What we know:
By secondary structure, the chain is an alpha+beta fold. The protein has helices at 2-8, 10-73, 88-97, 129-137, 178-187, 226-229, 268-320, 335-369, 380-397, 411-418, 420-437, 462-479, 507-524, and strands at 101-108, 113-116, 141-142, 146-147, 154-164, 167-176, 196-200, 206-209, 236-241, 247-255, 260-267, 400-408, 444-447, 452-458, 493-501, 530-532.
Amino acid sequence: xxxxxxxxxxxxxxxxxxxxxxxxxxxxxxxxxxxxxxxxxxxxxxxxxxxxxxxxxxxxxxxxxxxxxxxxxxxxxxxxxxxxxxxxxxxxxxxxxxxxxxxxxxxxxxxxxxxxxxxxxxxxxxxxxxxxxxxxxxxxxxxxxxxxxxxxxxxxxxxxxxxxxxxxxxxxxxxxxxxxxxxxxxxxxxxxxxxxxxxxxxxxxxxxxxxxxxxxxxxxxxxxxxxxxxxxxxxxxxxxxxxxxxxxxxxxxxxxxxxxxxxxxxxxxxxxxxxxxxxxxxxxxxxxxxxxxxxxxxxxxxxxxxxxxxxxxxxxxxxxxxxxxxxxxxxxxxxxxxxxxxxxxxxxxxxxxxxxxxxxxxxxxxxxxxxxxxxxxxxxxxxxxxxxxxxxxxxxxxxxxxxxxxxxxxxxxxxxxxxxxxxxxxxxxxxxxxxxxxxxxxxxxxxxxxxxxxxxxxxxxxxxxxxxxxxxxxxxxxxxxxxxxxxxxxxxxxxxxxxxxxxxxxxxxxxxxxxxxxxxxxxxxxxxxxxxxxxxxxxxx
Length: 541
């Protein structure tokens, strides 16, 4: 993580960390939602299987009640069926009281109607499977979906043979209203209000179901549909596509008494609606939370990290560039960065102090490098640099520059007679007198050799330079430093003077040579005197 932060920065690292945490939370939430979805689907499947079983029991009970009713009706005298109208009144009363009955009829063993609540003489049902089954089994039989030959309407028929002397003499047939099956389905206790019931006969023809949903399907053969194909073998649940194209959970149970199948359908979308809403809400909450955290981290990192780091970086760069006063304002920093900022400021102050001390030391070293250690005057190097600088300035400004060259008379003899210690003392005393000749701030006095001195006088006329030189000669003689080998018994000096208006930097060499020549003449003319070099026409502006 440290390498990542070092490469991509703190803010990016925080966003990456937040993203990882958010992804982990999303994965965990996704796993939870997926588990909840599976649990909800399992609960829904279990629920519709239970409800389908209850609906099947209800249907079975009603068919059983019909079985009992037909068994009782066949005991009535009217079931003798001696004429086509003998059963009309008693059977008609039953049909009127039971809304699920459309008709009651007695058919002879040949299938011809003998007596019926519906006046349809000559009608035969000898070819109906349920009629043949009733005769063959001698028991109760419920037909598949059919079109009644008595009413011409879609119907179901329940048949029970009338047995006399151990032989089926006739068959009692009850016409069953398909709307009755729809009402039974509507009365079935279902898991949710949107669960739907579809009742198939043994051939896959819809014979009933939830009112309003299956009315248009009554009589349709759905054996080729995905819904019928999903019923599998026996009872259970399947994921299926309903007749209206909806994805449903389907529970199928057989109806033993009729040979049909009852299906309870539950839309997957309704089962998962609440969970889907929860998932969307959770995703939205994550998105909003992530956005808020993004803003908070962005703004927070700006205040907590980015701004302090930027301020420290800027100050460090300025400090590196030599701005030793670079500091950071730590009042608005968070505590950790406030400590860093305080340490940085203290470091900057320490560097500033060290730099000031170093500058002072460097200046001192520079001064020492440019100062004669014995006399405290400038040394030869300082003299050369100062003469070049003043000459360049005078050339630029077209001003005069005067140079005084000084030599102590017979100084070697002085050292030989009095020793080097006294010689050094004499040099220091004479140097102090030479320094007084440099009265102005721009004047500069230097020791240029063993007993040689020089004074640079910028912007100084020839007459002023000569006067300063003469004062120097007189002042040294007045020091009265004993010198038995000298002409006057004391230390004296010889002085050469040159003063020129400088127009080019090359003329500085000529000025130096002129002053040196004047000093040479003063020495050969008897010493303890001043010699002035005449004006040089080529150097005069």
